[in-house]
Amino acid sequence: MTDRRTFLHSAAAASVATLASLGLPASAAPSLRDKHPLIIDALGGIDNINLPVTRRENAASDFGIDARSLADAKASGLNAFNMTIGYVFGDGDPYEKSLADVHAWNIFIQKQSAHLLLVRGAADIKRAQAEKRIGVILGFQNAAMMGKDARRVEVFAKGGIRVIQLTYNGPNQLGDGSMAPSNKGLTEFGRDVVDQLNRNRILVDLSHSGEQICLDAATASRAPIIISHTGCRAVADLPRNKTDRELRLVADKGGFVGIYFMPFLAAGRQPMAADLIAHIEHAIHVCGEDHVGIGTDGTVPQIDDMATYMKGLEDEVRQRRAAGISAPGERPDIVPFLPDLMGRDKFYKLADLLAKRGHSSSRIEKILGTNFLRVADSVWS
Asked: Residues of the signal sequence (predicted)?
């Protein structure tokens, strides 16, 4: 059996071979690059993954966003990304932690204003594209910081938060996440939070949610909702992926589904670019081409030292399992990205792979960014 580390060390060569097998010359200029299509990562980052974790999480060290991060992100064509900040899980007061992060990120984005732009509306994404900056959409992946007061939504809206996910993998006061066996739906307090999100023009994100809360919230929301980063349960039967029923309801409400570049694209093995394509195509079949995009749940810079990275991954998986927040598919021998679709060329490689499958340029541009922009604009305006 091939050693996983050996396999990953040869990811670059495998990528070239994969492209060649699809009839795509590795040295060819991506067909969409010269058109400068709008590229929005509905959940992702741009931090330099080669830096120590403590630096990537520390505001005093610029959250791991260094000169390489910015150069790689710009070279990738990325125009905006939804950056997870605030409380997700663990110790500490969720409200205080989230307030502090909002403050720190506002200061950081202002300090890096030559490169970054805080996104408060869809026009800011277009402005970032025109000015060759990168739009930062601030978002939460857990609404636990609402405590018992749904009016806190307004506080975060004023601070620049534009996306709030209702639950992480476990339960909270709004309902159950994808790993909660009771699959509890949207609570009365959860309905109050959804109402406040609508009132304050914040996108309701149903990633990581259990099926029932997803269906309940999609029905309760007066505005289109999103699932920023997920996969399709019909393609890979894992709890982090969404059922066709969930996907269809989100689309019917005018919403958006972002497909991630994560281990949950395949069951029991390392997923590759072909698996991502399969999930995107299934989502298009269920939702229609106007409601599907990407939410990588990853960063842009490529990993330099895979052996060191794999050791860190082992520690991370162990810690997540100990904390009870791990999901099936998270393993120390399966990396949380696609080995043949990583680095500063990943968005254009994806575009080429979709084109090779027969998808039109207009559809590919929708997937890369314009679908998310349209839905976000309908909520933020």
From this structure: 1-28
Whether 2 shows a pLDDT value over 70: the answer reads no
User: What count of residues does the chain have?
Assistant: 381
Q: Which segment of 74-78, 169-173, 218-222, 321-325 scores lowest on mean pLDDT? A: 321-325
Query: What is the domain range of residue 109?
Result: 38-380
Neighbours of 131 (CB within 10 A): 12
84 HSE (CA, 13 A, CB side) = 22
Specify the pTM.
0.91
CA distances from 327 to 61, 291, 350 (A): 30, 26, 26
Residue 82 host element (H or E):
strand 80-84
Domain assignment present for residue 369? The answer is: yes
* pLDDT tens-digit readout, 91-141: 999 999 999 999 999 999 999 999 999 999 999 999 999 999 999 999 999
- Whether residue 19 is contained in a domain is answered as no
- Is position 33 within any domain? no
Residue 69 tokens read as: 């991060």
CATH number at 314 reads 3.20.20.140
* Dihedral over alpha carbons 172, 174, 175, 179 (to 10 degrees): -40
Rg (CA), the chain: 19
Q: What residue has token string 């399969």?
A: 278
Of 218, 232, 307, which is closest to residue 262 (Cα–Cα)? 232
Residue with tokens 């732009």: 117
Q: In the chain, where does DSSP find H-type helix?
A: 4-9, 11-21, 53-56, 67-76, 94-111, 122-130, 152-158, 188-199, 211-220, 244-252, 273-287, 306-323, 346-356, 361-365, 371-380
Q: Determine if residue 176 is left, alpha or beta; phi over 0 gives left, psi from -120 to 50 gives alpha, anything else beta.
A: beta
65's tokens: 């966003």
Query: Does 338 reside within a domain?
Result: yes
Residue 83 burial class via C-beta count within 10 angstroms: exposed 0-12, middle 13-18, buried 19 and up: buried
| Phi and psi angles of residue 272, each rounded to the nearest 5 degrees, phi first | -130, -175
C-alpha 367: how far from chain center: 14
pLDDT digits (tens, 9 = 90+) for 69-92: 999 999 999 999 999 999 999 999
- Which residues, including other chains, have CB under 8 Å from residue 188's CB and lie 6 or more apart? none
